Amino acid sequence: MDNIKEMIQPLLQWYQWNKRDLPWRRTKDPYAIWVSEIMLQQTRVEAVKPYYARFLETLPTVKDLAEADEETILKLWEGLGYYSRVRNMQKAAIQIMEEYQGHFPADYKKLLSLKGIGPYTAGAVGSIAFDLPVPAVDGNVLRVMSRLTADASDISLQTTKKEWEERLTAIMPEKESGNLNQALMELGATICVPNGTPRCELCPVRKHCEGYRKGDPQRYPVKAEKKARTQEYLNVFFCVYEDKIAVHKRPAKGLLSSLWELPNSGREVPVPAALQEIGILEAEIFSMKNQKHIFTHIEWYMDCYYIKVSKKTSSELVWLTKTDAETSFALPSAFRKIWQEGLSKMEN
Prior knowledge:
It is a single chain. The protein is α+β, with helices and mostly antiparallel strands. It is built from 16 helices and 8 strands. About 45% of the residues lie in helices and about 15% in strands. Strands 1, 2, 3, 4, 5, 6, 7 and 8 form an 8-stranded mixed beta sheet that branches. It has helices spanning about 1-5, 10-20, 30-40, 45-60, 60-65, 70-75, 85-100, 110, 120-130, 140-150, 160-170, 175-190, 210-215, 270-275, 320-330, 335-345, and strands spanning about 230-240, 245-250, 260, 265, 280-285, 290-295, 300-310, 320. The N and C termini lie far apart (about 65 Å).
């Protein structure tokens, strides 16, 4: 533990002078910090900035989030993916309103009790907003600590993460825990990087690093290989009737649950038959560019079609103008390129 303790002061000093100026670092508001931490999961910092600003402008308080309608929060989240996260945020906001009178609890265990908040997020919000001496262990921190200590434990295991949470809890400084957590994350994001060669020559804790001393910091961290993703093959339809476009709501459970989508079917069903099944009786069919979309565990391979409808019947499809669709309904990223190509064809 000595080399871990010894890195605290040089790391904090480095962070003070080298940290990036990010909007969520300019506040101690736990709500704003929480919003940023949820958005930053699986998303690049630069991509998050406009989403963060728009979300807080529209829903500036916990109360606003708790009372918002679902289509509003999904539209604000459109393009970030993992929509269950923003749904859980709203459930947590309702909890905060009902159980804590609209105020974030300044207590680690109570933060953990909120919907969608795990040890990392509770640690980040608790330490940054309330100076609680708790760690926030994410992938960046696991990588930094594995290299610093030349620890070959598999970081994909919950036991490894739990062990690091315990080890870091033991050294958390009373009034600098938030800065230390952010410094570790910053070091992992900018110096001790996940892809490519770590920038050891710029590292403020290089002399305390066992991985560097052994001459092979990239050996760490150790992580088990991911399982291959399931592949699914779809036909996707951009259906136009007069000036309206068809969308469909996905099932309440499963991938992209309850989100709007472009109508689609498995490729085992011929395109004309699939269109009949969704209430499109007569139409011209034009091929569009095929698309691919990668989810965490699934890959979609999509054959795409522009469908100019001349006769239809009632079905589960909802027909919207371009303006209504783009201002009020969240369309998952999987369909965005198809949507844009379809709009281009409508206008030509």
